[in-house]
Amino acid sequence: MKAVDAASAATETRMLQNFGHIPQLSVISIIDILVVAFIIYEFLKLIKGTRAIPMLVAVVLLVAAFWLAHVEQLKTVDWLITTLFPYAVLALIVVFGAEIRHALARLGRRLSTSRGGAFNGADSYEDIVLAANHLSQTVTGALIVIEREIGLRTFIESGVPLDANLSYDLLITIFRPSAPLHDGAVIIQKGRIAAAACFLPLSMNPVLSTQFGTRHRAAIGITEETDAISVVVSEETGSISIAVGGAIERDITVEYLRERLSEVLRRYVPPAALPTTVTDREMAAEDRAIERLSHEKDLADGAER
User: Fold this and answer.
1) Are strands 142-146 and 185-189 parallel, antiparallel or unpaired?
2) What pTM value is reported for the model?
3) CA angle, residues 138, 273, 276, in degrees to nearest 5
4) Where are the CATH 3.40.1700.10 domain residues in the chain?
5) Which helix (H) or strand (E) holds 83?
6) Which residues are within 8 A (CB) of 226 and not within 5 positions of it... i.e. 6 or more apart?
7) pLDDT range class, residue 121, cuts 50, 70, 90
């Protein structure tokens, strides 16, 4: 009986000693854990739905295999890991280059104190709204990119430099199917048309690659790497879409486009009268009405004489 009590007392003593090795949680420790959890959450949210997911799974499996090799004291494998580890880090940076750029761009946007982007108080995007409305009615494809805080110089240099005043007429002329600059994107910089026929990076999201064409994927791709805004008009259906922060809103109305641009650029522009597209039938009817009025006037003049 005494032996049982002694064994029980010894067990309790060992349990107390084991609990004594558990570190005490302080406020700093809790903050530390929350910061690490937040970083992991943001990283997983960043790479969700991208090509980085299967590659990250492969990296985790390789790390687990190397750890087992180290634990089991496989000296050759351990030496190989130690030798190749610095090069593996560089390889990961190259492989995940797009995701790293995207993460740094998002961090820069969050830390930036600027509010208005590249458009200042004297600039107006109403010409963009009017042009999108006309291009939608005529089912003409178009892609307009608005620069904000992150510069688009690399993409501007890939196109034809214009440095022209932003106007409704010029946008319509550029995207006319017979115009030499209608392919590619128009980039708006500081309220001016910086360049046309620009090449943009395509979104590498595997989900979007099966749902959108090249123009829409380019509109999303530029917003994934920068904080720019893309306005795109489909050449198949004439629907208007807007892309911000790697997300796209499809089949929106002109009124919603104006409100969305006002919200993103943090400016208010009063709505203007939207131009309407006159069909050939309407023009012919109007010409006949004018001819009839002219004929009646000639008859009236003849009767007076």
Assistant:
1) parallel
2) 0.58
3) 25
4) 126-265
5) helix 75-95
6) 105, 147, 148, 150, 152
7) very low
Q: Could you count the other beta carbons within 10 Å of the beta carbon of residue 24?
A: 5
- For residue 157, give the DSSP letter: T
More confident residue, 303 or 185: 185
Give the whole-angstrom CA distance, residue 141 versus residue 171: 12
The pLDDT of 168-189, averaged and rounded, is 91
Task: State the virtual CA torsion across 217, 220, 222, 227 in degrees, nearest 10.
Answer: 180
DSSP E strands, 247-288: 247-252
Please report, as a single letter, which amino acid is at residue 244.
V
Count of C-beta atoms within a 10 Å radius of residue 208: 18
Mean pLDDT of the chain: 76
Percent of residues, the chain, with pLDDT higher than 70:
66
Q: What pLDDT is recorded for position 92?
A: 74
Just give the CATH number of 126-265.
3.40.1700.10
> How would you list the strands of the sheet with 160-165, edge to edge?
160-165, 192-198, 185-189, 142-146, 229-233, 240-244, 247-252
> Residues with Cβ < 8 Å from 37, sequence gap 6 or more?
none
Cα–Cα nearest to 130, from 255, 23, 246? 255
